[in-house]
Each structure stands twice: as structure tokens, then as C-alpha cells.
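Entry type: protein chain
Record version: 2
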Amino acid sequence: MQDRLAELRRQRALVAEHLVWLDREIAAAEGKPAPAPLPALTPSPALAAAAILAKASEPPPPVQPIAIDHSDAALLPEPQPADIKNDVRRGCLLYFALASVAVVALGALLVWASQAYKKNHPPAPLAPQDQVEPAR
């Protein structure tokens, strides 16, 4: 929450500084004397930015290592490279078989849908000028 508050104050100071600059530029363009600068209510943006950077660069507190109990590690079997290789091979073959079944099923579905469509929608008859007369 403090970081957000510091950031908001820094942004407000930047906007106030920009408004003072705009007032000076407008006065110079109109040929009037520059208005007197307002007293700073907040620290300068450079100081606020430096404070934020200093806070961010502080090293984090050291982390205490967690004690791990390895007493049950001996009960777990060690994975064998051959077992892992067989498991991977079995998984790949399973994925290939499932993909093959899916492709065959989709092909069968397309054939069935095509035949069902042809049954319900016979081709349109040819127009008389498109009909070919048998050769004599």
C-alpha cells in the first residue's frame, strides 16, 4: 500500500511540475512575466524516485532452508531407464492408435453422410439441350 501511495504522490508531483512548465510557456508566448512557482508540497520527483529505487534495491531477507526428511526415500524404487523407455514407447503407440481410429471414424462418417445426402437429394435431370443423343 505504501508503494502505491508513494507512486501516486510521485505522479502528482510530476503533473504539478508539468503544469508549472506549461504556465511559464504560456506566459512567455503571451509576453507576460512568468508566474511565481508554487512552493513544493511534496518532495521533488527525483527524490521520490530515488526513495522508491532504494527501497526496491534492498536485498530480501535470507530464506531459511527447509529440512527434508529422506528416511522414506529408500522405500521408493529407482526408475530404470529401460522401464521409462518402454513406458514412452507404449504411450506413443497408444496415441498413434487413437489418432488412427479417429481418422478412420471421421472418414467413415463422411462416407455415410455423403451416401445419406445422395439418397435424399437425387441429381437434377439434364435440360433438353444438354442431353446427348445416342449415335446411330
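Comment: The first helix runs from residue 2 to 30.
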